[in-house]
Amino acid sequence: MSGVILVLSGPNLDQLGRRDPALYGTATLDEHVTRLSEAARARGYALRHVQSNFEGDLIEAVRDATDCVALIVNAGALTHTSWALADALATFAGPVVEVHLSNPAAREPFRHLTTLAGVVAGSIAGFGALSYDLALEAACRLVERGPDVAGS
Ligand code: DQA
């Protein structure tokens, strides 16, 4: 398999590494992206990464992703507020995997709502850096096997 996988990072994720490391870990966003790019390349995919603190930029990045075979999204706090990003993601043709470093369901009540839930294939949360690795694995399997992602 081959193709481009878009990784979309929302507001404040550019602060990873110094933003509440006890919750989000010590790795920077660049370090996550470098690790994921290498893992993607080993599986025959190229990674494109877009980070923005602005909702409209993220929406346009989704629209521009017509050449991508899958999309991995950590929308940060927009996860809990942005119906506009959900609408944009609903138009993406390939699988969308939602990812979070922390486990929003175990945090403040406002984080329990995800506007993206209805438009993603699935969500991986709470495993720190491993969440991203698992999200990439899920995205690749969805591209290669469709919804039946189980098996080696
Ligand atoms: C986050 C969880 C969100 O609730 C928060 O607003 C973030 C990071 C995560 O990766 O754990 O910015 O998406």
Can you walk me through this structure?
The chain has 152 residues and is an alpha/beta fold. The protein has one domain: Rossmann fold. Helix content is 34%, strand content 20%. Strands 2-1-3-4-5 form a 5-stranded parallel β-sheet, with helices on both faces. Strand 3, helix 4 (83-90) and strand 4 form a beta-alpha-beta unit. Helix 3 packs parallel to helix 4 (83-90). The longest helix is centred in the last third of the chain and has 17 residues, at 129-145. 1,3,4-trihydroxy-5-OXO-cyclohexanecarboxylic acid (DQA) is lined by residues 12, 74, 76-77, 79, 100-102, 104, 111.
Number of domains: 1
- The residue ranges in which pLDDT falls below 50 over 5 or more consecutive positions are none
Number of strands: 5
Summarize the main sheet: 5 strands, parallel
Net shape:
globular
Order of helices and strands: EHHEHEHEEH
Query: Distance between the terminal alpha carbons, to the nearest Å?
Result: 15 Å
* Proportion of residues in helical segments: 25-40%
CATH level-3 fold name: Rossmann fold
Mean pLDDT: 96
Task: Quickly describe the structure.
This protein has 152 residues and is of the alpha/beta class. Helix content is 34%, strand content 20%. It is globular, with a radius of gyration of 14 Å.
Features:
globular, 152 residues, 5 strands, Rossmann fold, alpha/beta
